[in-house]
Structure formats: structure tokens, C-alpha cells
Amino acid sequence: MIMKQIIATGIAVLALVAGCGSGDNQHLGDGGPDTDGDGPGDVPAEAPDGYDAPDIPPPDSTSDLVCDEQGFDIHREIVRLMLLLDQSNSMQGPKWTQATDALQALLENPAFYDMQFGLDAFPDGYPGFWADCGLACIRCINDSCGTLSPPQVPVAPQYISASSIIAHMNDPDYPNTCGNTPLVNQLEYYATGPGQTDAPEMYLVDGTNYLVVISDGEDHGCFEGDPVASLTALTAQNLADHDLRSIAIGFGSTSGELAAELNAIASNGGTSYSEFLLAEDGVALEAALTEIANTVTTCRFVIDDVEPSADPDLVNFYVDGVIVPMDEDCTETSGAGWHWVDDEHTTVEFCGDYCTNIKGGLVESISATFGCTTHLI
Fold first, then answer.
1. CB atoms closer than 10 angstroms to residue 36
2. What is the β-pairing status of strands 12-16 and 365-370?
3. % helix / strand / coil in the chain, to the nearest 5?
4. Which of residues 89 and 129 earns the better pLDDT score?
5. Statement: the pTM of the whole predicted model exceeds 0.85
6. Which of 37, 153, 181, 247 has its Cβ near the most Cβ atoms within 10 Å?
7. Are the C-beta atoms of residues 301 and 347 closer than 8 Å to each other?
8. Cα–Cα distance for residue pair 149/116, rounded to 1 Å
9. Across-strand partners of 315?
């Protein structure tokens, strides 16, 4: 048996070449029983007069020594999270430290190893942007409200982007005294601004893409108009035009207009979070981010480069080496097995407790074979 190993999410996703079948096949010779004791299935070289050899059909393919020699790779369906983090002046001090700790815990969680994360902190800032402002922030109004620069950390798998995100959080230049809160401008960046050019990964259709807004204050100092109406329209446009979903977290106090603005994002974001999540401190923020990641992560796995000869009725999946039965009518939260998601038989979804364990990081390996009759529930 040949085996290829793919590491993808804290789960070792295995691609196996199937090898099943019995070594006890009855070997038939020229079509008759063992009449001379020389071996199974022998017929005498000279059959007696009147001997009528039995009509024996060819052996069934499922009894071959090797069911099928089909290797394939499998990976979890892609989920991308762009963290839109408020880095206005009100985030200075303990809040920024708490946010840093919460993001680090999220990005070190093995359950989210193959999720993709990016950071687009607002207003935009890079070392030197505010260097000449001093205490006269009016001289740096463009930087105080800027959202048109590319994300500080592009979206990439956790094991690639995590260190860059934490490096930004630990940079003493952030947040800055002259930073305002351009919530509307930041959502506009993805709806009608340069987001499609600067962050093209967020517009790919090979997975599910989310904007996670984290703010400790309402839109301030950058937008003239009704922020709630604008955030409602821009969030809905991101969903309708780009299938870009949005989730909102209020960090700290949510008094004033912040609750209404965050709910405008949440209620139009196309997720189960129709209201914003409240995180009063760093521990709560870590919990909120973990809950979101657990909710949006998927139990769907995609089979890469399936050969035309691969028979979807001759496939089995294994969790930590134990076969998982096919449960045709199961869902992510019900049933106890797996089922095909698409008619092309390229994507499977694990259901019930299997999904719970996968999302919880309790599964070490998932493997699959083509060629042996599917085990049904």
C-alpha cells in the first residue's frame, strides 16, 4: 500500500491508495473442480468422455486482490477571516495589550491551523505615518482617517500570517494618539474601494470569506452623514456583490452610537450573528473570537484532482484510523457519519459528533480510500 501524508489543520489529512480484498479467492483452473488432487480448480488434461465442464463466470472485481489503485489528496474547505481591528487612539494602553493577547490565543489554537487570517487595522498606519504630527493631529488628518492602504497582513493560512499579525500588535507605533475611527471608510474599502486589487484573496470563490470588525467606539472624525445607514448599505453590498460576510464585535463599553453601528454590520452580514458580540475585556474578546472561528470553520473536505475512474460508491473515510459510515441525510449538527455535498462527488461533509470533534481539534488524522464498497450507516 502506498501512502501520501498532507498536513492541513492540526489534522493530518491522508491520501491513501486503496488495498482491500480477500487473499482467499478460489483459484479456478480451466473451468472444473479439483479432480486429480494436484491443486484447486484443476481439470484433467484429458477429460473423460461425456464430461461437461461447468459454466463459471469471471471473478467479480470486488474480489480482486486490490480493489482499486487510486491515490488522492484531500483538504478542508477554505475559510478566510480578515480582522478589521480598530487601532484608534482610544485603543491605547490596556485595551491594545488585551487585544494582542486575545489574537495571539486565537492564532495559536491548533483547531484553526488551516484557517486563513489577515489583519487590516484602521486607520491605516505604518511606522513614520504619524512621525511629524506631534500633538497637532490636524496636520495628519489624512493618516488619522486613512483606510486606502493595503491590509497590514494579507490573508494567508494561520501558520504563515500569525507571526506577522502579532508583530504588528507588538509594534510600539500602534495605536497612535492621532488615530480616529473610520468605520464607514473601512467597510467602503471592500465594497467599492481598492479592496479587490489590494486584498484579492478575500474575493476568491473557492471558500467562505469573512470580515470580522472589532471596535471600541463608533465612527468618529472621518465621515459626514448617517453612519448607521452607510454601514447598513456597505455591508449588504459586500455580501451581495462579493459574497463577503461580516461579523461585528464591540470591545469594551458599547454606549452611545456604537451598538447601533455594529448591529448595522451584524444584521446585514449574512451570518448567524445578526447582532454584534460584546467583549468587555480581553478574556471576553478571546472567547468571542474563538466562538466565531468555531462557528465558521467547516467540516467539509475537498478531494483534489479526482480521476474519472474513481467510483463514488467505492470510497470510505476514516477518522483517526476508524471507518466512518456514510449517512446520506446527515448534516453538520445531526446524524453520525459523512455525506457527499455536491453531485460531482468532490466534497464531503462530516456530521454530528464527528464534526464536533473536528472543530474542537480532537481529531488527529482523516484518511480516505477509493476502491472498496462504501460502508453505510
1. 10
2. parallel
3. 30, 25, 50
4. 89
5. no
6. 181
7. yes
8. 20
9. 370
Structure-block grid coordinates of residue 263: 448591529
Q: Which helix (H) or strand (E) holds 94?
A: helix 94-107
Sign of CA dihedral 157, 326, 20, 66: negative
Rounded Cα distance between 233 and 137, Å, is 30
Closest by CA to 234, choosing from 211, 205, 255, 257, is 211
Residues near 240 by beta carbon (within 8 Å), at least 6 away in sequence: none
Q: Which residue has the cell 449574512?
A: 270
CB 271 within 8 A of CB 245: yes
Residue range 216-226, pLDDT digits in tens? 999 988 888 99
Classify residue 260 as exposed, middle or buried by CB count within 10 Å of its CB (0-12, 13-18, 19+).
Answer: middle
Residue 75 grid coordinates: 483538504
Instruction: Out of 8-12, 68-72, 253-257, 291-295, give the one with best mean pLDDT.
Output: 291-295
Q: At what angle do helices 227-242 and 183-191 cross, to 10 degrees?
A: 20
Q: Grid coordinates in use for 333?
A: 449538527
Instruction: Report domain extents, the chain.
Output: 1-39+68-76+311-377, 78-296
78-296 sits in which CATH class? alpha beta
- Residue 13 CA, distance from chain mean position: 14
> How many Å apart are CA 6 and CA 3, to the nearest integer?
10
- pLDDT, tens digit, for every residue of 316-354? 888 998 999 999 999 999 999 999 999 988 899 999 999
Q: For the chain, what is the mean pLDDT?
A: 81
What are the E-state strand segments in 150-260? 153-157, 207-215, 244-251
Beta bridge partners of 78: 207
Q: CA gyration radius for the chain?
A: 29
Cβ atoms of 239 and 267 closer than 8 Å: no
Cβ count within 10 A of residue 105: 16
Residue 48 DSSP class: P
**Strand partners of residue 181:** 220
Question: CA–CA separation, 88 vs 85, rounded Å?
Answer: 9
Amino acid in position 248: A
Closest residue by Cα to residue 235 from 268, 212, 194, 195: 268
